């Protein structure tokens, strides 16, 4: 078994470039910046920004082209792929990585998306009561002693 999965949260570096190929498939390509921050020995903040190329296909590419814009913060889920190409006159091939995304979510809310209810935040941190309904039986959020294995 193997797994090739990438999850990133970052800022879109350019408006997506959307193309319709000869076979009718739609592809969208954009760059994503992720930044790591830390304090150096002198206590000063340092930043390291990495740029990633993100590719989406078909209906997701159409939605990305309509709703994703430069500067937005997005969540990207996909797989890491590598492509090689030869530059004329060079002996060795160049290789670069790109993320083929199967899920892209806006994290930046815009007035238009709020009005339409697009990416409306969902409360996933609802308070769970820690109560026991009867002796030995678990209440919501409490593990049961009766495990099926």
Could you explain how this protein is built, in words?
With 149 residues, this protein is mainly beta. The chain has a single domain (6-116), classed as Nucleic acid-binding proteins (OB fold (Dihydrolipoamide Acetyltransferase, E2P)), CATH 2.40.50.140. Helices cover 11% and strands 43% of the residues. It contains two helices and six strands. It has helices at 58-67, 111-116, and strands at residues 6-12, 17-20, 26-39, 45-57, 73-85, 94-106. A five-stranded mixed β-barrel has the order 1-3-4-6-5. β2 (17-20) and β3 form a beta hairpin. The longest helix is centred in the middle third of the chain and has 10 residues, at 58-67. It starts with 5 loop residues before the first strand and ends in a 33-residue tail after the last helix.
Structure at a glance:
By secondary structure, the chain is mostly beta strands.
Main features:
five-stranded mixed beta barrel, 2 helices, globular, OB fold (Dihydrolipoamide Acetyltransferase, E2P), mainly beta, 149 residues, single chain, disordered C terminus
β-strand percent reads 35-45%
At the fold tier of CATH, the topology name is OB fold (Dihydrolipoamide Acetyltransferase, E2P)
Termini separation comes to 24 Å
Chain oligomer state? single chain
By CATH, the superfamily comes out as Nucleic acid-binding proteins
CATH-derived architecture: Beta Barrel
Number of strands: 6
CATH class term: Mainly Beta
Report the average pLDDT across residues.
80
Low-confidence stretches: 115-149
Question: Which structural category fits the helices and strands?
Answer: mainly beta
Number of helices: 2
Strand order of the largest sheet: 1-3-4-6-5
- The run of helices and strands is EEEEHEEH
- Choose one word for the global shape: globular
């Amino acid at each position: 078994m193997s797994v090739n999965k990438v999850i990133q949260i970052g800022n879109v570096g350019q408006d997506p470039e959307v193309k319709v190929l000869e076979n009718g498939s739609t592809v969208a390509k954009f760059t994503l910046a992720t930044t790591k921050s830390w304090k150096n020995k002198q206590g000063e903040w340092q930043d390291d920004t990495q740029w990633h190329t993100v590719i989406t296909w078909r209906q997701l590419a159409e939605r990305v082209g309509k709703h994703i814009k430069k500067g937005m913060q997005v969540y990207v889920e996909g797989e890491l792929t590598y492509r090689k190409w030869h530059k004329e006159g060079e002996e060795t091939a160049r290789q670069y990585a790109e993320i083929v995304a199967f899920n892209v979510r806006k994290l930046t809310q815009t007035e238009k998306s709020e009005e339409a209810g697009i990416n409306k935040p969902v409360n996933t941190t609802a308070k769970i009561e820690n109560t026991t309904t009867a002796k030995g039986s678990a209440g919501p959020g409490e593990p049961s002693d009766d495990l099926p294995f």
